[in-house]
Design brief:
Elements (H helix, E strand, L loop, with lengths): L17 H14 L5 E2 L11 H12 L12 H15 L11 E4 L1 H13 L5 E6 L3 H9 L3 E6 L10 H7 L4 E7 L11 H14 L2 E5 L15 H4 L6 E6 L12 E4 L2 H12 L7 H12 L1 H26 L15 E5 L5 H12 L1 E2 L1 E2 L8 E5 L4 H14 L3
């Protein structure tokens, strides 16, 4: 007798990642013989810097193939804590290695934090547009997402006034992402400080996803909540090596949070994945400590991203009245689709032009479309010309 699969309430409402779905559809069409350019990816197309690969191999040769502490190897946690302490500039006690949890990618750090902090009956403020996984993470914790639409006049970012307008008596925290995926907008220090001050006054937790922090175009690095928050008592900062160092496959992220919260997240992780991959931790250690080589690699990558961004914007300028968010960080162009239907336009673009982009519905904004310029410049330029060609006259 067969038994049909019925998902448990824990996962019944989870949706597949829309960005991954777009990438899979593009791969399927390519396998069928179509010429496809994938501008849906959220992954740098650069090689991992050679010095990081060499450090990985050296770690393997030295026997880094066994379990580590659940929260990560001490040298890596110490390096992350030292960098965070430097950003705090003496504002409070130094960040300790005990406040750092190394995770299997920054996505796990975000899930750890949402699952430990929030639960049934809690409301979590979610700036919209937001990265596809935030909503699902809060849902897995069985908390409620309270969408806070961003202000189009300031890059679809949220303000303290908008957060207060949508807050409820059950609000327990908020998710923040700067530089933003999908828009590329960057919160400046004053904007972050105002949000941090509001959260502290209202007793809300702030989970600040800063994974794109080193990919910025008008400053060396995006402001961090670590730079401006008056207190770290209600703050979780999430980061990792995936984007800045083209290390997506290494799966190393981390959280910085108060010690009691970090201990709870470590306990949770001990029953899910245990430690992140050992050799990957040593690779991340090289990225964090061999700063001259790391800075040079990041600078070269950002310079190429800037060139692609500028070329793409120049081509899209042919579309009269195009609503495009100014991308000052990350590697995405976020624009309003013709007719206000991002899904229809993305579908038409893929099927007729062979260009894969992500419909804005994935981020809670169905009128918009996200195109990544983490692809060869020639592909980015061809993709932008296809968008212009597909745009209704």
């Amino acid at each position: 007798m067969s038994h049909p699969f019925v998902p448990s309430p824990n996962v019944a409402s989870i949706k597949e990642s829309a960005t991954i779905a777009v990438s899979q559809r593009a791969k399927a069409l390519r396998a069928a013989g179509r010429s496809i350019i994938d501008l849906g990816a959220g992954e740098p197309d650069f090689d991992t810097p050679a010095f990081i690969l060499e450090a990985t191999k050296a770690a393997l040769d030295a026997g880094a193939t066994r379990y580590t502490a659940v929260d990560g190897i001490a040298p890596l946690r110490e390096a992350i804590a030292a960098a965070a302490t430097h950003r705090r500039a003496g504002r409070d006690a130094p960040v300790s290695a005990g406040e750092v949890v190394v995770t299997t990618g920054s996505k796990q750090a975000l899930q750890n934090a949402t699952f430990v902090l929030f639960g049934p009956g809690d409301d979590v403020l979610m700036p919209v547009p937001s990265w596809v996984s935030y909503v699902e993470m809060v849902g897995i914790a069985r908390a409620n997402v309270i969408a806070v639409p961003g202000d189009p006049s300031c890059g679809l970012k949220v303000t303290p006034a908008l957060l207060e307008r949508h807050a409820t008596p059950s609000t327990r925290g908020l998710m923040l992402n700067s530089p933003s995926n999908p828009t590329g907008a960057v919160y400046d220090a004053d904007e972050l400080r105002a949000i941090s001050d509001l959260a502290a006054a209202r007793g809300w937790w702030v989970i600040s996803d800063e994974i794109y922090g080193r990919i910025t175009y008008s400053m060396p690095e995006a402001p961090s909540m670590l730079d401006v928050a008056a207190t770290r008592d209600n703050l979780v900062v999430v980061n990792g090596v995936a984007k800045a160092y083209a290390m997506t496959g290494f799966r190393i992220g981390w959280s910085i949070a108060p010690r009691a919260l970090s201990q709870a997240m470590t306990a949770l992780q001990s029953h899910t994945t245990s430690n992140a991959a050992t050799e990957s931790q040593y690779a991340a250690l090289a990225a964090m400590t061999r700063t001259a080589e790391a800075d040079a690699a990041v600078a070269a990558m950002v310079a190429e991203f800037r060139a692609r961004r500028d070329a793409a914007r120049g081509i899209l300028a042919a579309i009269p009245g195009l609503e495009l968010i100014e991308p000052d960080g990350a590697f995405y162009l976020f624009f309003k689709a013709p007719g206000g239907d991002g899904t229809a336009f993305a579908t038409r673009l893929l099927e007729s032009e062979g260009i894969a982009v992500v419909p804005g519905a994935a981020f809670g904004t169905p009128e918009w479309v996200r195109a990544s310029y983490a692809a060869a410049r020639s592909d980015v330029e061809r993709g932008m010309r296809a968008i212009v060609h597909a745009w209704p006259a």
